[in-house]
Design brief:
InterPro entries: Ribosomal_bL9/RNase_H1_N, RNase_H, RNase_H1_N, RNase_H1_N_sf, RNaseH-like_sf, RNaseH_domain, RNaseH_sf. The chain is an alpha/beta fold. Helices cover 34% and strands 24% of the residues.
Length: 243
């Protein structure tokens, strides 16, 4: 049985060019700000993508990573138990397994951060689609009503951003991976919403649930999960914390 070869085109990365394997491609884009890369079936398509002439869509598990920051500052903890989801290594195989286990249309990893000296809170979102497309989003804010919640403001903001993306893209379900339990417990009514912004978060999630099915999956923070670590890095980048 023959194995089909693909061409990994790095448009923005450490060394832009065409690579013959995901391993080589990943070396050029992992951790690189606003990296852009996709997988193609033919070298001609890969070259056209790099040169900005592509009119085709990527084949197979096309991968694209876009560092996008939307400037719309928006928007906390207690007890709560959740079964931890196994850490993922970020490979295409891991992505396929995530979709098989969650049975959802799209997946998002979210995290929040806070810089106490500046009072800036922020979020990071890694949005993953079934075709392998990956988009990254981050944003920050300094609104006083959110500052008291510190990094939890970013956690909430990230979850809302991810859910709104799913709606905008026309999906009917999303799996949200998070390391802060409140993201799920407030949305599902398991924790009491006793602050203005947690009440607001709950209400917005209820509205989103009229449009799509939302499932929550807790991951262990700083456990080596590739996508969770990436969301954490984006959140830190948003608030100006050097990593």
């Amino acid at each position: 049985m023959s194995i089909m070869a693909y061409y990994y085109a790095v448009k923005i990365g450490e060394n832009p060019g065409i690579y013959g394997s995901w391993t080589e491609c990943e070396k050029q884009v992992k951790g690189y700000p606003n990296a852009q890369f996709k997988k193609w079936k033919t070298r001609e398509e890969a070259e056209a993508y790099i040169n900005g002439n592509s009119t085709s869509t990527p084949h197979g598990s096309g991968v694209s990573s876009l560092g996008l920051g939307s400037k719309t500052p928006s928007f906390r903890e207690e007890k709560g138990k959740a079964e931890l989801f196994p850490a993922q290594d970020g490979s295409l195989t891991a992505i396929e397994e995530l979709f098989q286990s969650t049975k959802t249309d799209c997946i998002a990893y979210v995290d929040g951060s806070f810089e106490k000296d500046s009072g800036v809170y922020g979020y990071g979102v890694v949005f993953i689609e079934k075709n392998g497309n990956i988009e990254e989003y981050f944003d920050s804010g300094r609104e006083e009503s959110y500052q008291s919640m510190r990094n939890v403001s970013g956690e909430i903001l990230g979850a809302l951003k991810a859910t709104s993306l799913a709606v905008e893209k026309g999906y009917s379900s999303i799996a949200i991976f998070h390391d802060y339990q409140g993201i799920a417990s407030w949305a599902k009514g398991e924790w009491k919403c006793n602050k203005e912004k947690t009440i607001e978060y709950r209400e917005k999630m209820l509205e989103f649930q009229k449009k799509l099915k939302i499932s929550f999956h807790k991951v262990q923070a700083h456990s080596g999960d590739h996508f969770n670590e990436r969301a954490d890095a984006l959140a830190k980048q948003a608030v100006g914390i050097n990593i």
